[in-house]
Design a protein that fits this description.
There is one protein chain. The chain is α/β, with parallel strands linked by helices. The protein folds into two domains: about 65-275, Rossmann fold; about 280-390, Rossmann fold (3-Layer(aba) Sandwich). The protein is about 35% helix and about 20% strand. The strands form three sheets. The chain has a seven-stranded mixed sheet with strand order 6-5-4-7-8-11-10, with helices on both faces. It has a six-stranded mixed sheet with strand order 14-13-12-15-16-17. Strand 2 and strand 3 form a beta hairpin. Helix 2 crosses helix 3 and helix 5 packs parallel to helix 6 (about 170-180). The chain is globular. The chain starts with 10 loop residues before the first strand and ends with a strand.
Length: about 400
């Protein structure tokens, strides 16, 4: 298959996760009959080390009606408060994929000129209603021109946890270059394929996200658009992500040592043979998780979940895990509550549900926020991380 980053015919499938539903479309019971499933196959480019899905679903279908709210996650709130502090001296920050305004809010409090762009009608309305100015649109040549015409040229453009969703990253880069000031910075935050492989986080592959970047693939993308990676940092959100800073060629400082070190590490450790081994590890982990749930059920232990992020869809559909094994899932987002998990239809409930339906064990699907979840549940349960399965 042709790689969508370097455009070479050099991509090979290394993981097949079967038929999957859309991970962020949480159905009501009457929607079950209309739920669609699509093949989810994952490919690796041996030329630029890009990882991508073989099936692409319309971005309009995926994001114009959306159920993910960043600000219900206190770990993310802390992260974006910190990022806003780093950007406090910026003249104008454009946040692409701004969701409910999780970065816009602290920027406003710091007195930094800001603007959000987000395609989701329901989520961008939440931001605008809170006084966090957001254009409801996909970021492309047309919306970029609207930004420039009405608000001016940003000296910082941020795209956090949305770059993996893009149908065509090249068009996005063109739009960035069109409006970014000559000495400006383009900062993206993306889940890192190196961490996904190392930590067996196969559940982070789902149809919302087309791309799973290495720094090598991002460097190739930058090169094709006359930019370069000036710095990279490992950050905590989403199980370990990269925060990557791009600038125009010839406009800034030399790349930091962190960039060279990570590129060298990928050259040694990110290869097709290692990814082909990953499939066996995935199957072992999913099998062990399901076996543990069956054993708990057989011994009379009542099991529920906490956190219903998109990864729940991949785990439960690939592992064939339904409400017979995980009775319900608590989630703090009001947009998900009183709906069901995609595909396997596990009920999603608010935290208050625990008072009358108290399980003995909680599967922590949003495992990187285990400390916050323990606090929200008064540390009153046994807690299980699903992949690989272990009580914590």
């Amino acid at each position: 298959m042709k790689c969508k980053i370097c455009r070479e015919d050099s991509s090979t499938m290394f993981l097949d996760l079967g038929k999957q539903p859309l991970a962020n479309k949480y159905p009501k019971q009457e929607d079950f009959v209309h739920e669609d499933f699509f093949p989810e196959q994952v490919f690796f480019c041996t030329n630029c080390r890009n990882v991508q899905l073989g099936t692409i679903i319309s971005r309009e279908r995926m994001f114009e009606d959306y159920y993910y709210l960043s600000s219900v996650n206190q770990g993310l709130v802390r992260h974006f408060n910190s990022l806003a502090g780093k950007l406090k001296d910026s003249k104008f920050v454009l946040d692409v994929g701004s969701n409910d305004g999780i970065l816009l809010r602290p920027l406003k409090e710091l007195g930094v000129k800001f603007l959000g762009v987000d395609p989701s009608v329901n989520v961008s309305k939440i931001a605008n209603d809170a006084g966090l100015t957001t254009i409801t649109a996909f970021f492309d040549a047309e919306s970029a021109n609207e930004v420039r015409t009405k608000y001016g040229n940003p000296d910082v453009i941020v795209a956090s946890s949305i770059f993996t969703h893009l149908e065509d990253p090249h068009l996005f880069m063109n739009a960035v270059k069109e409006i970014l000031t000559e000495d400006g910075k383009f900062i993206i935050e993306v889940e890192y394929i190196g961490n996904i492989i190392r930590d067996v986080q196969f559940e982070r592959f789902y149809l919302d996200r087309i791309f799973y970047y290495s720094l090598s693939s991002l460097a190739k993308l930058a090169e094709l658009h006359e930019m370069y990676i000036q710095d990279v940092e490992m950050i905590e959100p989403h199980g370990g992500s990269l925060q990557v800073t791009f600038i125009r060629a010839g406009q800034g400082a030399a790349p930091t040592d962190r960039v060279a070190n990570m590129l060298n590490e990928e050259a040694k450790n990110l290869s097709l043979p290692k990814l082909l081994e990953f499939k066996n590890v995935v199957d072992e982990s999913v099998g062990a998780f399901k076996d543990m749930l069956i054993a708990l059920k057989d011994s009379g232990v009542k099991v529920a979940g906490y956190g219903c992020p998109a990864r729940v869809t991949t785990i439960t559909n690939y592992g064939d895990i339904g409400p017979d094994l995980v009775e319900f899932i608590v989630d703090d987002s009001p947009l998900k509550q009183n709906k069901f998990s995609p595909g396997k239809h596990i009920p999603i409930v608010p935290n208050a549900y625990l008072a009358d339906h108290k399980p003995e064990l909680l599967v922590v699907f949003a495992f990187e926020y285990i400390d916050d979840i323990r606090k929200k549940t008064d540390n009153a349960y046994r807690y299980l991380i699903p992949i690989p399965p272990r009580e914590v």
